[in-house]
Write a sequence for this structure.
């Protein structure tokens, strides 16, 4: 909006899009904005952000073409930066280290809301915002699912397993709040990143973000042989393309299954 918002729709061309992409990459749209009572939106820019934003622009202009506001999509033909998405997944031994660090943090008096929220992220594959803003009205113990509203991809239903349900059942409810993890001054709990940093360091998980727990959930799913469409539904993806980032993880169980089948056939023939 600050870079293209004042231009007329039909006047924007490929050069404008290319300049826009490089300006976002250079941080010209960087901002630190206060949102709501306790929120902050920190926008840094960078090549990855620039590439994904140009992708969003392409969808906007595709809509403009569909509505006959203009005849072409100026994003087509613009060479974007490689989108190097983070693909960090926790190995089984790292999961064990995280479990030990969480227990140690709990024993040492760390915020129980943060401990429970991190465990729930591990057990559900949900996004951080989906768990922190979770309301009791969205938890369905009978149907074993979460009815999430106003998420990144709209309203959705997430199936959850027994360990996650047991964890939720153990979280105390507060009469003054509708949130599973209420904040100290209203709204929902927002102090998770600082607690995660302490636990991450304690567990020796260098460079692991909270969002990587979601990636790890998906990696375990592919490891037990689940298909990408199933993984996508578990994560609440609205588009199949989004799940494709986990395609390489499916190679290992597929290769093992292929080896097992071929070995059994060879043994039978011999």
């Amino acid at each position: 909006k600050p870079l293209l918002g004042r231009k007329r729709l039909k006047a924007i061309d490929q050069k404008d899009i290319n300049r826009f992409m490089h300006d976002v990459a250079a941080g010209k749209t960087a901002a630190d904005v206060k949102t709501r009572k306790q929120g902050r939106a920190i926008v840094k820019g960078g090549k990855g952000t620039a590439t994904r934003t140009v992708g969003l622009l392409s969808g906007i202009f595709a809509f403009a073409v569909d509505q006959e506001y203009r005849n072409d999509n100026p994003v087509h033909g613009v060479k974007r930066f490689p989108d190097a998405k983070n693909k960090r997944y926790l190995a089984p031994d790292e999961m064990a280290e995280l479990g030990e660090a969480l227990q140690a943090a709990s024993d040492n008096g760390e915020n129980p809301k943060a401990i429970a929220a991190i465990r729930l992220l591990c057990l559900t594959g949900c996004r951080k915002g989906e768990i922190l803003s979770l309301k009791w009205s969205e938890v369905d113990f009978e149907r074993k699912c979460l009815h999430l509203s106003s998420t990144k991809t709209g309203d959705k239903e997430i199936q959850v397993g027994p360990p996650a349900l047991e964890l939720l059942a153990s979280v105390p409810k507060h009469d003054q709040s509708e949130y599973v993890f209420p904040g100290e001054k209203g709204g929902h709990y927002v102090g998770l990143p600082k607690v995660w940093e302490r636990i991450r360091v304690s567990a020796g998980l260098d460079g692991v973000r909270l969002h990587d727990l979601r990636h790890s959930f998906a990696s375990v799913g592919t490891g037990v042989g689940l298909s990408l469409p199933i993984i996508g539904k578990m994560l609440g993806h609205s588009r199949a393309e989004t799940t494709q980032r986990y395609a390489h993880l499916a190679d290992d169980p597929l290769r093992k299954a292929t080896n097992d089948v071929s070995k059994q056939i060879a043994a039978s023939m011999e």
